[in-house]
Amino acid sequence: MRPAGHGTSRSGRLRPARIGLFAVLILIALFFIVPLLWMVSTSLKGPTDAIVDTGWIPQRPTFDNFRQILSTSGDTPVFRWLLNSAIVSGVGTLLSVLLTSLSAYAFARIDFPGKGLLFSALITTLLLPSVMFLVPQFLVINWLGLYNTIPALMLPGLAGVFGVFFMRQFFLGIPLELEEAAYVDGANRFRTFRSVVLPLARPAIATLSVITFLAFWNDYLWPLIACQGDGCTLPPGLATLQGQFTAQYGLLMAGAVLAAIPVLVVYLVAQRWIVQSVTSAGIKG
Amino acid sequence: MTAIPGAAAPVTRGGDTQRRRRIGEKWYTPYLFVLPHLLVFIGLIGIPFVFGLWISLFAYDQVSPSSPFVGLQNYINLIDPQSIHFGFFWQGLWNTVLFVILSTPTLVGVGLLLAVLLNNRFRGRNFFRGLYFAPWTLSVAVIGVLWWWILQDQGGLISNGLKGIGITPPSWLSSNPWAWISILVATVWWTVGFNTIILLAGIQAISLDLYEAASIDGASRWQQFRSITVPSLRPILLLVVTLQVIASFNLVGQPQLMTGGGPPVNETTPVLLYIYNTGWTGRYELGEAAAMAMVVALIMVVVSVINFRFFASERA
Q: How many whole angstroms from its chain centre is CA B210?
């Protein structure tokens, strides 16, 4: 079944109204696409051209901006930032999904003393504004001697509880009989979890991974606080570039393109599915 | 939690089979599942929860050699007009509230409008929906520097376009109200797609029968929107408004990167940016920043509760 809309208009009827609808849709589409195209266009222009050449297609297209900011001998560690972003987002997502799934399974399937209390404690923190944790998290990270390290950039994200609720919700919907069968075959809880529950939870895991990856990749305020120099990720790095290369818009947009391209490419490939993931996570969250 | 009928397998005891421990299962098995996440949670949310309050009672900064206990002084600074933080903190808080007031109706309203548009049946619907949502996947750092560039006086896309048709553009980022409008437009561009897809999902969950009955009764599309779509959408609207208020309260990256918190004196510095500036620039006054954060967090919780009550009572 196609997810058809159900307004009163049917295709083929009311031609002028159709044309009007498309005109509006395309106008709005331009609003969303033009800044992205301009970002790419600027990133391919030399330092003077960025300001002087006002055309969409660069008159003298060049990859110099990318070459300059990515070169390891240059004065900006963009390559390191990119690498850090990839590690923090990749490893962070993997760990986060693993930790929250394990925890969620116990909350969904096993009774244990203190479960209710623990669960309420987790729920409560979900409602607390993140601003109140900034200073104490920063100090905890400092005391652990982790300032400006990869773990420092991941830990607050790993402590988050959204995944626990999201995965628990999904686990509750898995028929018990499937786990029973594994148990009868002699599998213990961990075996059951690994070989029965996790494979069944693949759609939920995929959804959670997308949300978590985006959160790690795009995080700005926490890395701004918890890292410096070449220990940072790309988003706070962009702020550094902005301060360092005043009015070198081509360079800056090259940095922005590097931060934007990975997510936009993944988004192009899996667009419909990502939209569904965010919708379901948004509504459940 | 009640037992699920038919779930009682012979190998387990009791009616509430699967959630109980199984025969031979150690008492600590469930804790092993919970523990890895719990440890990180305790270290980075549990302890900071208490510790944030504690540190706000100290004159803690990274410059002074000692950090004496000062009781409520950090809080008193926020209500003492003599304190250097007084004016900036309240201006920041007002700026944030202003942004919440401006952005919530805009982002929810535009989101609803786009959702209604996308609810029509037409070719390429998923394409348009995907395009409107795309900027949401970007970091605030990207959208901040991108719009900063687009809105530059010299060489900026919008100013160039306006000059091209003979209009003298204002200084978008260094004069008010344009600075606020710029931040608002950039935020709409960035996040309205999120509200749109949530509201669209809500609209699509409304039963078609309601609309059919209404059309038979001769209701116009506008009447259908007002008396079917909006009321049926109320729980989703509550969700979107609540999420939007929280998101707008957290405004920080857009002004930091686009206006630098200006024009001239802190006119677009939201309270979160002021907290950042207090704790992580200049004198690194972390104790004072923690106190400000507590006040802001309290306000956010109160606003969320009021928000929820308001919608809950309207629904009754």
A: 33
Give the tens place of pLDDT for each residue, A97-134: 999 999 999 999 999 999 999 999 998 898 899 999 99
Per the structure, the complete domain to which residue A241 belongs is given by 78-246+270-284
Question: How many separate domains does chain A show?
Answer: 1
* Residue whose structure tokens are 């394409």: B127
* pLDDT tens track for B19-51: 555 666 788 889 999 999 999 999 999 999 999
Are the C-beta atoms of residues A284 and A165 closer than 8 Å to each other? yes
Structure tokens at A113: 């003393």
Mean pLDDT of A6-17: 57
Q: Say what the ipTM of the complex is.
A: 0.89
Amino acid at B122: F
- Structure tokens given for A247: 């009015």
Are A159 and B9 in contact (CB < 8 Å)? no
φ and ψ of B137, to 5 deg: -80, -5
Distances in Å between the alpha carbon of A27 and those of A16, B75, B107, B190?
A: 16, 49, 18, 17
Instruction: Spell out the alpha helix ranges (H) of chain A.
Output: 15-43, 49-52, 64-70, 78-109, 115-126, 134-143, 150-159, 162-172, 176-184, 189-192, 198-200, 202-218, 221-226, 234-244, 249-269, 271-284
- The answer, yes or no, to whether residue A8 has pLDDT greater than 70, is no
Name the nearest CA neighbour of A196 among A273, A257, A105, A267: A105
Quote the DSSP letter at residue B285.
B
* Structural domain harbouring B42: 27-55
B51 and B198 together in one domain: no
Q: Which of B29, B39, B142, B206 to probe by mutation at the A interface, max A CB count within 10 Å?
A: B142
Residues B44 and B89 in one domain: no
Give the separation between CA A148 and CA A134, rounded to whole angstroms. Answer: 15
- Into how many domains does chain B fold? 2
Chain B from 295 to 314: CB within 8 A of any A CB: 296-297, 300-301, 304
Contact in structure between B132 and B114 (CB atoms under 8 Å): yes
Q: What are phi and psi of B58, to 5 degrees?
A: -120, 150
Cα–Cα distances (Å) from B41 to A100, B17, B297, in that order, read 10, 30, 19
**Any idea how long chain A is?**
285
**Would you say A243 and B257 are in contact if contact means Cβ atoms under 8 Å apart?**
no
Which residues of chain B neighbour A245 with C-beta distances below 8 Å?
none
Establish if B213 belongs to a structural domain. yes
**Rg, C-alpha atoms of chain B:** 26
Same domain, B276 and B191: yes
Say yes or no for a CB contact (<8 Å) between B297 and A3.
no
The amino acid that residue A17 corresponds to is A
Q: What is the CATH number of the domain that holds A88?
A: 1.10.3720.10
User: pLDDT by residue (tens digit) across B44-96?
Assistant: 999 999 999 999 999 988 878 888 888 899 999 999 899 899 999 999 999 99
Asked whether residue B212 falls in the same domain as residue B290, the answer is yes
pLDDT in tens, A237-260: 999 999 888 888 999 999 999 999
One domain, residues B48 and B163: no
